[in-house]
Write a structure and sequence with these properties.
The protein contains seven helices and no strands. The protein is elongated and about 70 Å long. It is mainly α. Keywords: Membrane, Signal.
Length: 142
Amino acid sequence: MMLFPYRILYSIFIINLFVSYNPTLCETYKYTREYLLNSKLFNLEPPQTAFSLDIQPISYPDKCELKQLHSVSRHGSRLPDPENIIAFDELEKIFANVSVAKGWYKNPFLMRKSHHLVKRGELEPYFDGLQSRKRYAKFWNG
């Protein structure tokens, strides 16, 4: 499978990142080791601000009549699939075997919750609908 080499490279990158971690460099940027380890640096923007409702309706000539509207959207954000959860489990084992990284990583994803919608995933289609209603107001109201 093609993902296997990617997982190895990703694991090597993460291990090198932690092995080469130099706390003195963090002082330059006034970040502590604890801050870097405990902060969520890759959070997604909240759905309420990610989906701007400050949009203008699309204008059409009066003679236009909507016959059919194709709206392509995806399901909301979900937890990883079983294959990726297994990869995270393997990564956790790798960290457990590195002396400087013991206990730094715990896989947050449970196999029994694979593919489940996250809270953001529940809200994304809702805000997508609100945006669509505002953008195509002429057709929804008429």
